[in-house]
């Protein structure tokens, strides 16, 4: 699903950045995408996806 409609950033893209690049904060995602740079309504949803993905990643590692 699209998280950021303004720039076409999907939940899959965010999850991929967390898993493959190790990005675990919104600032890191913003460096790689245009997420949140226009209307900003997507930031809350993106943070939830980052947190869920990071938690899953750390559970698998531990």
TrEMBL record:
InterPro entries: BFD-associated_ferredoxin (IPR052371), BFD-like_2Fe2S-bd_dom (IPR007419), BFD-like_2Fe2S-bd_dom_sf (IPR041854). Keywords: 2Fe-2S, Electron transport, Iron, Iron-sulfur, Metal-binding, Transport. This is Bacterioferritin-associated ferredoxin. Belongs to the Bfd family. Its cofactor is [2Fe-2S] cluster. Residues 2-52 form the BFD-like [2Fe-2S]-binding domain. It comes from the Bacteria. Pfam families: Fer2_BFD. It comes from Vibrio fortis. GO terms for molecular function: 2 iron, 2 sulfur cluster binding; metal ion binding.
């Amino acid at each position: 699903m699209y998280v950021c409609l303004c720039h076409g950033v999907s939940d899959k893209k965010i999850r991929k950045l967390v898993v493959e690049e190790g990005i675990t904060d919104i600032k890191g995602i913003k460096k790689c995408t245009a997420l949140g740079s226009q209307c900003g309504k997507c930031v809350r949803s993106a943070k939830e996806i980052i947190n869920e993905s990071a938690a899953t990643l750390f559970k698998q590692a531990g």
